[in-house]
Write a structure and sequence with these properties.
- The chain is of the alpha+beta class and 144 residues long.
- The chain has a single domain, classed as Alpha-D-Glucose-1,6-Bisphosphate, Chain A, domain 4.
- The protein has three helices and seven strands.
- Strand 5 and strand 6 form a beta hairpin.
- The N and C termini lie far apart (38 Å).
């Protein structure tokens, strides 16, 4: 299983960042390879269930995402199933009154087991670079 972890400070209050990231409708704004989010439904735990389309290595994958753990303004865990199985964990901590420390951890199975270890390493590296872009996009979204 591949694992990526990134951390940034965003110049916005914790509650505002959490409310933006928890809503899957916002994800295509900051996640470049996320093509589509649809069929979004609220869950009793305060999270969401949705369907997604994602592009990896030139191929489209379909699946579902569901927030399995939600602690408001602290953390959010999303399980993905379908074309790409994985777990996306967001952790939020106030860095100051007007800034938030955001950590993104992604654990997933590379969906190309027949391509071999070299191809898998290339895909993992591409996804690591995309995670950098995800975090940069979130930071840019909240520039005062």
């Amino acid at each position: 299983m591949a694992r990526i972890e990134k951390e940034i400070t965003v110049e916005a209050p914790l509650e505002r960042i959490f409310n933006y990231i928890i809503n899957p409708i916002n994800w295509p704004e900051f996640w470049p390879s996320l093509i589509d989010i649809r069929d979004v439904k609220s869950l009793p735990n305060g999270g969401y269930h949705s369907r997604w389309t994602y592009k990896m290595a030139g191929m489209l994958f379909e699946g579902i995402a569901q927030n399995t753990q939600v602690v408001t303004n602290q953390w959010l865990v999303t399980e993905t199933k379908g074309g790409i199985k994985g777990t996306i964990t967001w952790t939020f901590r106030a860095a100051s009154v007007d800034s938030t420390r955001v950590t993104l951890t992604i654990e997933y199975r590379v969906p190309f087991p027949l391509l071999g270890k070299l191809a898998e390493a290339i895909i993992v590296r591409m996804n690591d670079q995309e995670a950098d872009l995800i975090m940069a996009n979130i930071r840019a979204r909240f520039i005062p």
